[in-house]
Amino acid sequence: xxxxxxxxxxxxxxGEWERVVTAVRVKDADRIKQNIDAYQGINENTVATRHIxxxxxxxxxxxxxxxxxxxxxxxxxxxxxxxxxxxxFWGDELEVMLEVEAGDFVYIPPFTPHKTFSRxxxxxxxxxxxxxDPLEQERVVVTPELDDGRCESRIDWVD
Length: 159
Prior knowledge:
Elements (H helix, E strand, L loop, with lengths): L29 E2 L5 E6 L10 E7 L10 E3 L4 E7 L1 E6 L5 E6 L3 E4 L5 E5 L6 E7 L8 E3 L17
Antiparallel strand pairs: 1-2, 2-3, 3-10, 4-11, 5-8, 5-10, 6-7, 6-9
């Protein structure tokens, strides 16, 4: 918020942080544990971060483009949908459904199993992801026992 007063410390006392502003351009996506494509921008392998990662993920069209069910150990996740329409199933048995579309923000608490689909058979859904984990993939736990088809019949397809 502009115009507010914040407490501060002298820069000389800022500790051991490497104070280098860095830009990362990612040309190619990686296939990540969640079985989707990800453009991994900010993580401890690309910059001197200690507490966050940031990436762009793409759920492909249809059932085949969905993530595997997974959760993140002890880390919060925030998503912003930039393109498409998606649906996320979450909960211990994926019993809760949340539809999202471009312009929506989503918060996922730590240790929350979730699975995401594009709601289109023709187009994917794209998300900017921020997580309180600089390692990004190291603390992802995949739960294949929940990938048993329990979600697919509940999707309200847009096409």
